[in-house]
Amino acid sequence: MFKGRWRTAGRALVRVIVVWAVSTLTMLVLAGILPDFQLQGADDSLTRTALTAAWGAGAFGLLSALVWPFLVRALLLVPALVLGLLVFFLNGSLLLVALKSTPDGGGAANPENAIVVAAVMSAVASATSTALAVRDDNAYRRRLSRLAERRRRRSGEDSARRGYTASPGTLFLQLDGVGHQVLLDAVADGHMPTVAGWLGERPTHRLTPWRTDWSSQTGASQLGILHGSNHDVPAFRWYEKESGRIMVSNRPASAAELQRRAIEHTRDAGLLTLDGASRGNLFSGGADQLALVLSMAARRGRATRSRAGYFAYFTDPANAVRTAVSFVAEVCREIGQSTRARIRGDRPRVGRGGLYPFIRAFATVVERDVVVAAVIGDMLAGRAAVYADLVAYDEVAHHSGPHSRDATRVLERLDRSIALLAKVADHAPRSYRLVLLSDHGQSPGETFLGGYGLTLRDLVRAGCGLPVPRRAVRTKSGAEARDAARDAVRTALHRPVDESEEGDEKRSARGSDPIVLASGNLGLISFPDVPERMSREQIDERHPALLRTLANHPGIGFLLVRSEAGGSVVLGPAGAEIPVAKLDDTGLLATMGPGAADAVRRTDTFPHVADIMVNSMYDPATGRVHAFEEQIGSHGGLGGEQSNAFLLSPLTLPPPVPGGGELVGAEQVHTVLKRWLYDGLGPQVPLGLTPATGAVPQEETEPSPEGA
What we know:
Layout: H1 2-33, E1 37-38, H2 46-66, H3 68-74, H4 80-100, E2 108-109, H5 111-135, H6 137-155, H7 158-161, E3 169-175, H8 180-188, H9 193-198, E4 205-211, H10 218-227, E5 237-240, E6 245-248, H11 252-266, E7 276-279, E8 289-291, H12 311-314, H13 317-344, H14 356-381, E9 385-390, H15 392-400, H16 405-425, E10 432-437, E11 443-444, H17 448-452, H18 456-463, H19 480-492, H20 503-508, E12 515-519, E13 522-526, H21 536-542, H22 546-551, E14 556-561, E15 569-571, E16 577-579, H23 596-604, E17 612-616, E18 618-619, E19 624-625, E20 633-634, E21 644-650, E22 663-664, H24 666-681
Parallel strand pairs: 3-9, 3-10, 4-22, 7-8, 7-9
Antiparallel strand pairs: 1-2, 4-21, 5-6, 10-21, 11-20, 12-13, 13-17, 14-15, 14-17, 15-16, 18-19
Helix pairs in contact: 1-2, 1-5, 2-4, 4-5, 4-13, 5-13, 6-14, 10-11, 10-24, 13-14, 14-15, 14-16, 14-19, 15-16
């Protein structure tokens, strides 16, 4: 035993020496390259210069290990995006301190070079340390186990969870917006080798397609998956007449209200109530460990701020620098890709300027890195259930197209994240079942504005006989990452988060003008001065041309509206009309895919369904739809790949639907995941139950540094 400990200590010492030597060499090279960075005086020998570099590298490494965690903890109240920018300056300051500590003060650098040197040294040291650990599998395994043990001791969970580790844990990893066909194409073309290995000649996983609800978007799908109900979620955004409020699925206050309604509807706190963790999601799922969960972001207090989830990742300066460098690289990549697309004259195309390059980098780099780090911490801690959402593909596909080269490159990087998590699972204190799933797909196509020169709002106003602006105003995009990044910037500026998003629509609610909202290729039209859902007869009396104008437009597939005679009806071109009670997947809905009639019929029962629901056209020959927002890859309604999500599960789990039946709707996916989760764990009592509701207290915790 003592011999093994000495061998372990010896290997650790060798790793420290190697990292120190590489850092010293890196510092010497940089001193030779950068003109204002020096390690020697005029009369210093080469040996003295090397000793100065060794001293500076050692002092910098020691300061990074000892001081950096305290700096990050002190700056936890600083919003995550601002902290990401401060990483460079703080790291450079530590280097300046290290240089001042060298014998005779031989090292010197101006602030700009100090930032560059610190960033390069952190990255090189991290890469060297990781490479050495990976080569020594036993050392790597012991290190991960040691980190998990520390985390359990500090959180006081060791005794509570020790008996659970004999049963397998489950990681649910949501690849936001990755449709079933997109996944198949990526596997076939070699862009996702990890997933391809799971589905290869000797498969370890089973791929099951599932069909979304009419509202094929993250808010409805994830609410149904995590909380078992997406009742009364007709779209990504909708107007509620009794409160005069516009609900937006990815707004903190709206997400919190939707979660509350779902829990009230099901009388169940959610999928993750048993020792669960929710990472990067819109909703908590009843988890007791939360980070970057939107429905909890509106809560106040240091421990409940959603950005507290960044702590575990930014505690490590090498991680922080690597993410910051990747962030800048991603911004440059987006600018280059959009410029080339504009030069080539690619069509369809939407604007990708302004803040979008930074929003894309936030989604594809910062959000991905922080969520993956949090999940690694959860697995090392041995949590029973983890659900995490990676939004990178969805954000890029909205602006570049779901089958574009840009989106494919994102899938390749997501596959590497999956491979990393699979490798960490091998070293976790319990075995893990890795389940991949998506919440919806995306359908390509020219925007409604691009195809016809006017927005849906313009068309509605024309049909109502109201003035139409001479120049069409582009409808805002509602991508999840865009709003998350925007809210982070607002927080950084100490400005309140705008919960309504549609400020102009809110103002228009004071009169009788219609409110027109867009959710991908699904449009919602509401008349705010009428307290109940308007009927077809009422609409015809007030605006005789409106329904006919909409139904006959070539960019619109069908309308749903209530009728006083015989219930709701679906309207189409040339006077086509089908009562919802008699609706099937033929006729007006023939091109919309299987289950379209049931999806429309279910939405028609929602209390907050709009006065007029508008679904764009869908061309089955090309797979294109027309988004009512500025997106060339869209989702939110019916038509094409947007309704076809996937569920990739280990063969050790039972088939999602016995007998090979169809998996339909997010609520059914919840039932499947819950059965898998609790069948594996057996009849156990969730941790931290409250006597009143049986729900886990929903507190957002701050992950430990070791969890990163």
